[in-house]
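pasting for the record
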Amino acid sequence: MRLHNLKLVWLLLTCFSVIFMEAQESHSKQKTTQKLGDVLLIVVPVTTLGTSFYIKDTKGAWQFTKGLIFTELVTYGLKLSINKSRPDLSNTNSFPSGHTATTFHSAGYIHRRYGFTYSIPAYLLAGFTAASRVDSNKHDILDILAGAAIGLGSNLIFTTEYQKKHFDLTFSGDKKSFLIGFTYKF
């Protein structure tokens, strides 16, 4: 499997999103951070799902998809039932933050499925997305904390650890002794 390429894919797509945002900024009156947060809402989950397919982890891709659907259902169910006004008073869909829930679901999936090291870029982008929602006056801290909890929590339900192989044979030894080990993961 090509798990070692995960960081490279993340880096390339992050750079692409920044370049895309800078090009679009001249055509928009929105603040750069808000615009970048909007782009990351799409880039982070698409990159996450695409990377799972790239390393041929279709089981993981299905787990990600189920978790994302659950995250969106819970998030928008709460938005429609709670009706909390946004800080900018534009509507009553403030609680919880959908941008934050989606991006933290992606970061949490990578963390739970592939390990913390691989999830660091995704957590940074998810954190930036959450901050962009507060900066753009669309959410307060409670909204983004709830969104992050929903996104991360869905991974506890749907995501399992990635098992590259089900068994491992190890050998170690010196001139006087040797040890053979066999591990099987169910």
